[in-house]
Amino acid sequence: MSTPALRVVHETGPGPDLEAAEAAAADLLTALGISLDSESLRGTPGRMARAYAELFTPRSFDLTTFPNDEGYDELVLARGIPVRSVCEHHLLPFVGVAHVGYLPGERILGLSKLARIVEHFACRPQVQERLTKQVADWLDEQLEPRGVGVVIEAEHSCMTLRGVQAVGSSTVTSTLLGTLREDARSRQEFFALTGING
C-alpha cells in the first residue's frame, strides 16, 4: 500500500500586503535620506516589497517518500544544497550551502525534497542555528530515519557588509540526531562526506 505524499505548505495566514510594504519601504528610504525623485529610484520601494515577499514565501511541495524495499541502510547525503535566507536581526541576506543526510529506516525520500525542505525553512527571517535544527528535526519527525545530519555553511552579509566587516568569513552550524549523533563512526562518515572535519 502506498503512503500518500504529505503536502507541505507555508504557514497559513494573510498573504503579503504589497501596497503597505511598498509604502513602508518608501518611508524607510526617505527616513534614511534617500530621495526617490529620480527615475532610477522611483520604483525601488515596490521592488523592495516584492523582493522581500519572494524571500519570505516558500513554494509548496509534496513530500514524496518510497518504501525502502531493498533495506538500504547506508548514508544518503545531498551536498551543496543552495541556501538563501534573511537574518532576522538586520534583515540582510545570508547565503551558502547545506549538506543534508539521513540513515534510512522503512522509507526513503525523493532526493529533490531535501532541497525543498531547506528552502521551506529558509524562506523567513531566520538565524542559521535555528534553520539547521528545524531542517533536522522536521526530517526526523516526518521520515523516521535511524539518523539525520544537517550542516549549513553560510556567509552573513550582516557580518561582512556592516559592523565588523569580516569579508570572506563563513559560519558553520550542524545538527546530528539518532545514530549520526550517537555512533562515532557514523558521525565521522557523515562529516567526511560533507567535507567538514568533525
Automatic annotation (TrEMBL):
The keyword Metal-binding applies. The keyword Transport does not apply. One of its GO terms (cellular component) is cytoplasm. InterPro entries: GTP-CH-I_C/QueF (IPR043133), GTP-CH-I_N (IPR043134), GTP_CycHdrlase_I (IPR001474), GTP_CycHdrlase_I_CS (IPR018234), GTP_CycHdrlase_I_dom (IPR020602). GO terms for biological process: one-carbon metabolic process; tetrahydrobiopterin biosynthetic process; tetrahydrofolate biosynthetic process. It catalyses: GTP + H2O = 7,8-dihydroneopterin 3'-triphosphate + formate + H(+). Residues 22-193 form the GTP cyclohydrolase I domain. Pfam families: GTP_cyclohydroI (PF01227). It comes from the Bacteria. Its EC number is 3.5.4.16. Keywords: GTP-binding, Hydrolase, Metal-binding, Nucleotide-binding, One-carbon metabolism, Zinc. One of its GO terms (molecular function) is zinc ion binding. Pathway: Cofactor biosynthesis; 7,8-dihydroneopterin triphosphate biosynthesis; 7,8-dihydroneopterin triphosphate from GTP: step 1/1. Zn(2+) binds at residues 87, 90, 158. Homopolymer. Belongs to the GTP cyclohydrolase I family. HAMAP family: FolE. This is GTP cyclohydrolase 1. It comes from Amycolatopsis azurea DSM 43854. The gene is folE.
